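Hi everyone,

Forwarding the result from last night's run.
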Amino acid sequence: MKILVTGASGYIAGRLIPRLINLGHSVSVFVRNKTHIQDYPWFHHLSSVIQGDILDLDQNRWFNEIKSAKFDAAYYLIHSIYTGDNFDELDSQAAINFSKAAEGISHVIYLGGILPKHPEASKHLLSRAKTGEILRHHLPVTEFRAGIIIGSGSASFEMIRYLTERLPVMITPKWISNLIQPISIDDVLNYLIQGLDIIPSGIINIGTSPLTFKDMMLEYARLRGLKRFIISVPVLTPTLAGRWVGCVTPIPNSLAIPLIEGIKFPVTANTDKARKLFTSIKPASYIQALQLALDETTKNIVETRWSGAHGLSTDYIIKDREGLIQERQTKISQATPEVLFKTILNLGGETGWFSYSWAWRLRGFIDRLIGGPGLLRGKRKGKFMRVGDTIDFFRIEKIIQNRELLLRAEMKVPGKAWLRFQLNTVPEGTLIIQTAYFQPHGLWGLIYWYILYIPHYLIFKSLVKKIASNQSSQPLS
């Protein structure tokens, strides 16, 4: 079949696309910026890449490309949860715009969320349901509704993992005893793929046997051989609980709060329709899904992570223009570009930042307190990193093997910031060019920069010296 997959840089799409290709389908993707996916191993097996902003209908090129391609089926995997308080409005507008472009496609498959049977369901889940309603109104749709997705790298799994690993005693809201219907990432992918074989069938709830979020954490503790004590109290609001999750886990507040709000009421549904339509799929139990996610995490074979999703947020582009402050450090090293690049890729995660470790940890802690990612996101192990991967509170914006690494800062700062490493071969050896860029927002941005000018100078000067001497604390695997 000729298939379009939207949201190609996201957690689900990054796993779905290679499976569709392996089944022999002709797969095209719609993505905001193709650089976000060009380092995936399946990129060169795509039939085409349609690039554009789904919120901007003035960009007629993407609209016309989808319109004229005559796809047999499409997967709608776009959401805007990271964009701020008005994410629900953006979700609706994106669905309307896609519906106009997708007229003529005979089957659209959408992955939404189980909607609690309560009038005060979370804004996030209501937005997911509204998106499905818009798509179904305009297009022939199969809408799979899933609860918590358990898989290596998923936000829900990471939240359970970090909370249980880090907190021997937890004070929790009483509603963690509500029933929730989890589902393994493998089962989600199976439903999405087999959905191509049925006619558009409206809403289909999917999931395995329900259990409480409290039991989810206790089962994780049991598998890991940990003793954990959970005390429920009636006073924690979803917002407070979400902010606490944001401080303890790698999940930022913008995602943690909607996730927590989503389980304030029971998240369960009747899955009889799924069982009748997909007789070959026997959903794995929570324990089975959890064990598989743990095994893959331990073996570092995580295909995609929640933090790799770029959502609908604005992309940043560095331009040499007025208002962009640059701080450059250079150093000559006798090591080869290959060795130095390996050292640079060793930055962050378990290895740390080579010098002034206490300062990096302090900055990460402060960032967590104010709602940023801090240092807890870590990084993928190994030398095969790609655009979109996270390194603590940075994200890889550009990578050229043995030549350049450009990191965009995602910590909370009054402006936009980047850190760039370049390697050039010169007669004396290898020239390392390390440049910090900062584009301040207003007066507070300038004040922030100049207050931290001396600490930044010392830290970055020491960092480039450590790289030049190839003083990484451990080799890449």
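The radius of gyration is 23 Å.

Cheers,
N.
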